[in-house]
């Protein structure tokens, strides 16, 4: 049955293993519980389309996943037809379409292109369910042992796994080793506290034409401010923006004050960073250019900077000597042991994955397809020619990852954290960005924290804030 979602169809699911076909009002073709299945049709949805958006994903699904899975099931005596429902929509439009499909009991059996930050929102709306509630054997998948617990959190909510993460990333401090050497700093640098970061910036401040440090701030940089700036610093104070156990958002806490004080030290009190960059529409791209042109000593960014921004052939900020002069280090907590869970170092990660449609008529068969798509063999096929960080450690070990990306997989993913996948998060993120913008433009950290508290109360309600 074609999806009723406006704009484009996400699912064309006509399968049956236990329940009626997804979104169908006629379940006369559905087998009874326990009835052996010998023929079925499943559908995979992805926000990918051959020749368009995420083309490599569409090609992998159509040219490898579908024929390989169909052949595998044929050997088991099951005639399975897998259909691909690709889209090239804007991410938010795709999200809306998925929500409409799932709300009406329709959609594909396996849904990919699912941003991890949507997980909590969809779970709270009962659009998706924990994997082990859809198929009881999901927790026994061999792949879970290969996916670090921290990475599993990207597709989890309140302790339950709702999907399988496909790939992820991590944030680190990048630094220019040549500038460090000129400033008398070690080329093999790893700060263990915020004070050590500030000490390095103070030494870099002695170099002519060099801005010591860039930590994203302000609303023009959008989510980059939250992910590359505020949230990793907050994790370094021992706090997270949302407490899942208590179901409370963090208000103007002492930990938030610590973060805003750090911004104030960098951009106002000691002028170690450039506050104007935080106010420019192109500020983030300009910081990339400054780094590539040896005018910026340190910046916190994701592995996106390394693999897409400062590559020698980049259209954004090409850096011919990237491999010779760029170093990286983990983001330290305020002081050793002060991070969330007593960690010495922290990071933030994003990424997405795939979920099962709880309305699928073939829970077991749909799970087999989902887990097959995330098997070691499948992910090696998907990323073999374009090595990227995957969710599976055994795949990352075999991929030809360069030194920096290997560092993310080995050192950063085990210590990383994820944003809360809740409906209110985007507005909370903007409030955080506004608080940093207030500080870099001269508002005291205490007043900026109060402004944030007021904004947060308007977003989530005072009863949902940890005061």
From TrEMBL:
InterPro entries associated with the record: Bact_solute-bd_prot1, SBP
Species whose genome carries this gene: Phytoactinopolyspora halophila
Signal peptide range in chain numbering: 1-20
Classification via PROSITE patterns: PROKAR_LIPOPROTEIN
Protein name stated in the entry: ABC transporter substrate-binding protein
UniProt keyword annotations, A-Z: Signal
Gene3D superfamilies, sorted: Periplasmic binding protein-like II (3.40.190.10)
Record's keyword annotation contains Signal: yes
SUPFAM superfamilies in the cross-refs: Periplasmic binding protein-like II
Source taxonomy: Bacteria, Bacillati, Actinomycetota, Actinomycetes, Jiangellales
Record-linked Pfam families: SBP_bac_1 (PF01547)
